[in-house]
Amino acid sequence: MSPHPLMTTPLTGDLLRGALDLERTEHGLLPHRLPARARARNTDGQLAMAEAQPSGVRIVLRTRATLVELDTLPTKRVYAGAPPRPDGVYDLLVDGRLAGRASADGGNTLTIDMVAGTAEVRPGPVGTVRFDGLPAEPKDIEIWLPHNETTELVALRTDAPVEAVPDRGRPVWLHHGSSISHGSDAASPTTTWPALAAALGGVELVNLGYGGSALLDPFTARTLRDTPADLISVKIGINLVNTDVMRLRAFTPAVHGFLDTIREGHPTTPLLVVSPILCPIHEDTPGPSAPDHSAMSEGRLSFRAAGDPAETAAGKLTLRVIRGELARIVEQRAAEDPHLHHLDGRELYGEDDSTELPLPDALHPDAATHRRMGERFARLAFDPGGPLAGDGPRP
Q1: pLDDT in tens, 164-214
Q2: Residue 236 and residue 44: Cα distance in Å, rounded?
Q3: Helix (H) / strand (E) containing 7
Q4: What is the pLDDT of residues 12-27, one digit of tens each?
Q5: Is 60 exceeded by the pLDDT of residue 233?
Q6: Distance CA 353, CA 347 (A)
Q7: What gap in Å lies between CA 193 and CA 200, rounded to an integer?
């Protein structure tokens, strides 16, 4: 126990990084990764859930505190017929180094039946995350919120005053992608591949990876357009296949329109288009993705490709088709846009990686693969000469 009484500090926007909006709820603050105007345009429950899960969102403080308590109301997901998911993880960094890891008890429970297509929420109590034994000298503290659990922030208590951390001058990296960028099966919020890449690249991450929802939505493009950033990347492809939302005829102009909108707000910002990582079930077989019922009967969550490869000739999308078209689009546009770049996602995770580290559920990388992807992206994108090298300081 701390010898000093605990003081409560109001949770305000100047203490948070990585969120685009803060909604006042009956319990406290709910961080969002889409602004209210974009959320008003959305009618999809999957995206509503994904953007409210605070991947990359962290509380950032300057303090002498040796004890920090955070009251939160998490929403924990349960998939009917699948093994229980682990509780969301809170990572504590002190001066940039991992110094603690914890989970919150209590919280709401969201039960999802993927076969029936239903979801039900059961309310639960507020929980507390506690970190103690911290060094007493002044330090920067970051509490990274669970990347895969909706988290309402209720109260922050410390045994010493806190203040906002000033801008350290690091470039802001704005990234958009699918559940793989969101964090999928990463071990913790600082070990999603974008968080790892940001730490290695010395950049400030704003993660707009939305599980199941990287679908070239115009309101997402406008969000990227309107969000301040020094470096931008967009990872496009897997969700377009596994939701089977469009064919090649619609895909090409949609990509152009998405990039055009980003360029309205960031005309010369380095912009990297990343194609899908290897996903064997959808390399040559279109979507949609469907739950693998045989795996579900064994208590495992897994997916299969439910499309017909013969339909590719009629314009149905596969990952191989998308990679080829993205490379062509970027090459065409780069003739007039020297700050636009392309990265084949198989350089982050390809054939050899698939043999060594297969995707556990046939769609999402595991914790070891997130680490590999983060290290590779940092080297390919942020190292000197890379498309997102920028001019900011590096560790």
Answers
A1: 999 889 999 999 999 999 999 999 999 999 999 999 999 999 999 999 999
A2: 19
A3: strand 7-9
A4: 999 999 999 999 999 9
A5: yes
A6: 10
A7: 11
CA dist., res. 372 & res. 360, Å (int)? 15
Q: What is the rounded average pLDDT for all residues in the chain?
A: 94
Distance between CA atoms of residues 74 and 349, nearest Å: 32
Phi, psi of 272 (to 5 degrees): -110, 125
SS3 of the chain: CCCCCCEEECCCHHHEECCCEEEECCCCEEEECCCHHHHHHCCCHHHHHHHCCCCCCEEEEEECCCCEEEEEEEEEEEECCCCCCCCCCEEEEECCEEEEEECCCCCEEEEEECCCCEEEEECCCCEEEEECCCCCCCEEEEEECCCCCEEEEEEEEECCCEECCCCCCCCEEEEEECHHHHCCCCCCHHHCHHHHHHHHHCCEEEEEECCCCCCCCHHHHHHHHHCCCCEEEEECCHHHHHCCCCEHHHHHHHHHHHHHHHHHHCCCCCEEEECCCCCHHHCCCCCCEEECHHHHHCCCCCEEECCCHHHHHHCECCHHHHHHHHHHHHHHHHCCCCCEEEECHHHCCCHHHHHHCCCCCCCCCCHHHHHHHHHHHHHHHHCCCCCCCCCCCCC
Residue 266 tokens read as: 């960031």
pLDDT at 393 over 60: no
Least confident of 58-67, 79-88, 371-380: 79-88
Integer distance in angstroms from the first to the last C-alpha of the chain?
A: 35
Contact (Cβ atoms closer than 8 angstroms) between residue 29 and residue 15: no
Cβ neighbours around 5 below 10 Å, total? 7
**pTM strictly above 0.90:** yes
Would you state the pLDDT for residue 296?
A: 58
* 114 neighbors 128 (Cβ within 8 angstroms): no
Over residues 91-118, the mean pLDDT reads: 88
Task: Show the tokens assigned to 353.
Answer: 């990686």
| Mean of pLDDT values over 215-227 | 98
Contact yes or no for 295/302 (Cβ under 8 A): yes
